[in-house]
Design a protein that fits this description.
The chain is α+β, with helices and mostly antiparallel strands and 635 residues long. Helix content is 24%, strand content 35%. It has four domains: 104 residues, Immunoglobulin-like (Sandwich), CATH 2.60.40; 132 residues, Sandwich (Immunoglobulin-like); 116 residues, Immunoglobulin-like, CATH 2.60.40; 109 residues, Four Helix Bundle (Hemerythrin (Met), subunit A) (Up-down Bundle). The chain has nine helices and 32 strands. The strands form eight sheets. Strands 22, 24, 25, 26, 27, 28, 30 and 31 form an eight-stranded mixed β-sheet that branches. Strands 1-3-6-5-4 form a five-stranded antiparallel β-sheet. Strands 11, 13, 15, 16 and 17 form a five-stranded antiparallel β-sheet that branches. A hairpin with a 2-residue loop joins β5 and β6.
Amino acid sequence: MKRMLNPNPMRKRHPGWGVGKALILFGACSSLFLGLHESAFSQQVDAALSQEFVAVGQPVQLNVSVSGARGAQVPQTLKIEGLDARFAGKSEQQQMQFGSGGYTRAVTATYTYLIVPLQEGTFTIPPIPVAVDGKRLQTKSLTLRVNRGGGGAIPVRPAVPVNPGAGQSMPQSPPSNSNPTDAPDGKTVFGELLVPKATAYAGEVVPAEIRFYFDARYQVRLQDRPGFSGDGFTVLDLSKPIERQQEVDGTIYNVVSFQTAITPAKSGRLEIPGATLEAQIQSPSSTRSRQDDFFGGIFGQTRNASPVTIATDPAELEVTPLPKEGRPESFGGAIGQFSLGASATPKKAVAGDPISLNVTVSGRGNFDAMGPPLLVEDDGWRTYPPGEKFVPSPSDPIGFNGEKRYEFMLLAREDREATPVAEFAFFDPALEKYVTLKSAPIAVVAQGGTPVTPAVVASATPGPSSPAAPVAEVSPEEVLQTGDFVPATFIPLLTRGWVIVGNGMLAVAWCLVLLVVAGRRIANSPRARQAAALRETRRLLKTMEDSSTSPEQFFQYAEEFVRTRLAGPGNESAGIDPRERLDKTLLPEETEAAIRAVLDRHDASRYSTATLPLDASERQEILNHLKTLDVELQK
């Protein structure tokens, strides 16, 4: 009976082990299902142009990205009237990702088309069909704008490798060892510098591409990014490397390309040096590299490798200055193709509240060198220097395409119903002429006037009141005692000593009271209050002489000093418009203009979204103007 109540422990654990195995199996199946679901869900395609604005004959890349799958099928040619579009190659990127099923290797394949515009116009690239794991997907449609070009492409010949290792030569036939530069065709590695134009304007941004080719039979490790610089031009930062495989004259090459842009600084013939790249190359493998091994070969570790420096041929560019004829006054150095847009917030503003006018310049060109748009038709408005921000296009790896956003702060001097108009002028190198764009005025309701600014000048503070002298309590009436009266010699009361002392003390007390009352009256008189306010106002000049005072605080003190002095000592300065008071004050014309400039700088420091500099010499000059104002108002 006892044995029946206590079963064998081993038999008790059997059901638990069965449940554990079931849970493990269920978890594995769930992870597999979720992993498959995640893999299927992550399959997507996308398309992007390397440039959205090009000239006739200028090549542009169309990249179709396929993520989450291998072996996608894309068309070899794209039939678009006016464009020559051909398939150029394929590249893959691999990275480790952690999902619900654990770590997986994510693959993104990029299929590149080379598009050459044959005529000017606006072209719509239709959705490109992509077959992925039996599914048919398609990309979004894209728009390419083509203008008339000003020159053909520069012919570029591939360069042979130089400096193939210390003390090594380049034999004509490959030996049995591992010299990577020994190949029958002499093209184990080479480079290309592609510049799409032969002529350009000074200041124009010219896109360029640097390509390096490595025979796919060799293992390669790149030492660093390419070196590319020279005199007479600036170079944008190189993009991230783009990797693909390409067949050239029957040989499969691993290709690494970098995109950048060149900006000529002056006119004349520009010599563009070749780009160089340091690499290590190992002997060819026994079998041709698979596509999966491409990325590991280019950036992986190599053994017994020989160093090699690959250089492209140099290029030339004929640079001409911008024409002076037809140059608008609002031209601020922008070169390229741009569009203009504007918006305003808020649409209603009371007196003293600013309105933000946001102006956007989008397109392609020299965003770093261009100046902001100008505001015209701005009667009745006070405008201030704008803040700016550049947002590159997601499809542009070098910051050549994008948009620049400017924020202007507007303050209405009079009642206004529309914002100023933004005017932006640029030179279009494809059209070879200047173009001026204007935004439409935006309807707003803005009340004119000056914001009410509280006065900070402290007036003289009256002293504390003197406590009143305590009133002596009246003593009970004394009872005259006559019974013990003894006649004596009569002495006048006023001649008694204690009476004289008491009267003297009383006289001194009265004198003190009179002095206190007179002092209070003098301290609270208009003249005294004016003098105290004037002293407090002039203390601001001492504070402004401190070099540690920030520009914003400096101009706040300056505006406060001007407003208080124009209001007059002892008068309430809050709520007055100092510019209106200047019109009523007989000041020298030079002094009045300088004070108005100080008030404008104060408004700019208060409302402008840009950082306004203020050096020591300018501080001293403004202080001198304020002191001159102080002297003129005393006359």
